[in-house]
Design goal:
Elements (H helix, E strand, L loop, with lengths): L3 E6 L3 H12 L4 E6 L2 H10 L4 E4 L5 H14 L4 E4 L5 H16 L1
Parallel strand pairs: 1-2, 1-3, 3-4
Helix pairs in contact: 2-3
Length: 103
């Protein structure tokens, strides 16, 4: 099975570390976490991602700009807002988003 690359953008360093660790606990996923928009755009252009997770505390304007940038670079990219709720919810959000994208 092919590895799914997931970009997580978060504004809180401890939460970012936890989310990336949880993503990487799935052997089929590779998570990368960043804290700012410019770094997110830069790494998005360097690596092929299937999914972008937007964490809490991202301002609406920043979220809109990021989504527009990601969609321009890759019209098929999946962008999901993740506001927390534990590892089960995170895994479920990712699986549902990836499954919905297949259809």
């Amino acid at each position: 099975m092919e590895t799914t690359n997931i970009l997580y953008i978060g504004r809180h360093i401890e939460i970012l570390a936890i989310v990336v660790r949880l993503i990487n606990s799935n052997e089929d996923w590779n998570g990368v976490g960043v804290m700012n928009d410019e770094e997110a755009k830069e790494i998005f252009c360097q690596k092929e991602f299937s999914l972008v997770l937007l964490g809490s505390r991202i301002q609406k304007e920043s979220e809109a700009n990021l989504c527009a940038f990601f969609k321009k670079q890759n019209p098929n990219i999946i962008v999901v807002q993740h506001y927390g709720g534990g590892s089960g919810l995170l895994k479920s959000e990712i699986l549902v988003a990836l499954e919905n994208n297949k259809n």
